[in-house]
Design goal:
Elements lengths: L13 E2 L3 H5 L16 E5 L2 E5 L5 E4 L7 E5 L2 H9 L10 E5 L6 E7 H10 L4 E6 L2 E6 L2 H9 L6 E9 L2 H13 L2 E3 L5 E9 L4 E3 L8 E6 L9 E7 L2 E5 L1 E4 L2 E6 L3 E8 L12 H9 L19 H12 L21 H9 L19 H19 L23 H12 L19 H14 L7
Helix pairs in contact: 2-3, 3-4, 6-11, 7-8, 7-9, 7-11, 9-10, 9-11
């Protein structure tokens, strides 16, 4: 079972750019009534609702001139709310702080000590920060990370969650990149989530990308969508990148271990050399999701052998891992400015790939099917860890084909090949032949990648 239980609070994260959040409309107030300034607690199914009052929401204008809301969650009320979770039967109970924000940038301050107490008293609990049509779900065990990074006790730490829509000044460049990728935006603007740890002396540390598990965000879209023609993406450093996501009617559940600018786009990519190919549908799907690219603007070269660097890039992009050029520096044949330095480094840091004894990676070497099985099962294990599930069940209960060339499978690849077959990620090239030494093609890589994504529930089964 998945570690994250389904909740009635529209799942884990939910955001849309509503007129209220995007345009700063003020909430209606009763005439002659002063707003209460103390949060109100209400018992709910599987959790506790904490209604933050309008009087607790402050409006500030920083140096950039863009108004923002600042909310300091009431420490005693938050502590009381987590105390009420102890009797809840939900696997991952949550305190939901409902915040009546009015600006497109919102900063919520949380006492880390309260999260630390909740971590010990209610393991697996969450704090959901629910703004108008924008919600963020923070695991209470994040408290350890904040204190550890700042090297002080949690009593001296404040966790600050910042949620904001992309400013108009940056939208032009982002839209140009989307246009270059052949994508059309569905949401009005990307939304950024950032987590900061702050010491009592003002020292801060960015904790956004220190996650070790997928964080779910449910984006509400203007209308129902076809999962095969839409994809979630992040925008960072001038690049548009695929992000794992599941679509259900007008909602997109986006999964990422870090933060960034998130949005949803539509895309449809065709290649002239894949028409009628046995892998045409899968190539079209993953290319339209901006996960795989062609060898040119019009060709995919489906039967061309795939290289170690290419497959490493496919795996890291599929899992939504950011590039890591620094981690590839240990390989003497991976140049810092080569296109594959980032994904090879990310794959290496995640333990998906290994180099050779002579310190090389051999990025342009062709990859065999048994080598692919090794990398694929490592990606399955790593992705399962991010999802909080076991990568495979009891393999003894699965019928594994006996191939005539089974003896040719290298000893180091025997277990991974068995696991890949049992998990349904790989098949023989024929019912009798596995062809372990045969070079894998780009088309085969795409098909295996789709199976991996569906197995990990990172895309819809289409």
């Amino acid at each position: 079972m998945r570690r994250i239980a389904s909740l009635t609070l529209a799942s884990l994260f939910m955001f849309t750019l509503s007129p209220l959040l995007a345009h700063g409309a003020e909430p209606a107030k009763a005439k002659g009534t002063a707003p209460a300034a103390v949060s109100v607690l209400t018992d709910t199914y599987g959790g506790v609702r904490m209604d933050v009052q309008p009087g607790e929401v402050k409006k500030e204008t920083p140096k950039d001139g863009r108004p923002e809301n600042k909310i300091v969650l009431d420490r005693s009320k938050l502590k009381e709310a987590f105390g009420q979770l102890k009797g809840k039967t939900a696997e991952h109970p949550a305190v939901t702080a409902v915040i009546p924000s009015t600006e497109s940038t919102v900063k919520i301050h949380i006492a880390d000590a309260v999260l630390e107490e909740a971590r010990k008293a209610v393991p697996g609990a969450y704090l959901v920060l629910q703004l108008p049509n924008v919600s963020y779900k923070l695991p209470v065990d994040f408290s350890e990370k904040a204190a550890e990074e700042l090297k002080v006790p949690s009593a001296n730490v404040t966790v600050i969650v910042t949620i904001k829509s992309m400013p108009e000044s940056a939208l032009g460049t982002a839209r140009e990149r989307l246009k270059d990728a052949g994508a059309t935006e569905i949401l009005p603007a990307p939304v950024d989530f950032k987590i900061t740890g702050q010491r009592s002396n003002g020292q801060t540390v960015d904790l956004t990308r220190s996650g070790s598990s997928y964080v779910e965000r449910v984006l509400t879209l203007p209308a129902s969508v076809d999962p095969s023609t839409v994809t979630a993406v992040t925008y960072a450093n001038g690049e548009i990148s695929f992000v794992p996501a599941l679509f259900n009617y007008n909602q997109a559940t986006v999964l990422s271990p870090g933060g960034g600018w998130f949005t949803v786009v539509s895309s449809s990519k065709e290649f002239t050399d894949t028409t009628g190919h046995w892998a045409e549908a899968d190539i079209h799907l993953l290319a339209s999701k901006l996960l795989v690219k062609g060898t040119s603007a019009s060709e995919f070269s489906p039967d061309k052998p795939v290289t170690r660097a290419e497959f490493a890039a496919m795996l890291t992009r599929a899992l939504g891992l950011p590039d890591n050029r620094g981690a590839s520096a240990k390989y003497s044949d991976v140049g810092k400015y080569t296109w594959f330095a980032g994904p090879v480094g990310a794959a290496s840091a995640a333990g998906l790939v290994d180099g050779y004894d002579d310190g090389t990676f051999k990025p342009n070497a062709r990859i065999s099917r048994e080598q692919m099985a090794v990398m694929l099962t490592k990606a399955l294990a790593y992705g399962s860890g991010l999802q909080g599930v076991q990568p495979t069940g009891d393999l003894s209960a699965v019928s594994i084909p006996v191939f005539q060339d089974g003896a040719k499978i290298a000893s180091w690849a025997s277990a991974p090949v068995t696991e890949a077959l049992a998990a349904g990620l790989m098949e023989g090239v024929t019912p009798e032949k596995f062809a372990p030494k045969e070079n894998a093609t780009r088309a085969q890589a795409v098909v295996l990648l789709k199976r991996l994504l569906i197995s990990l529930k990172l895309i819809n089964a289409v």
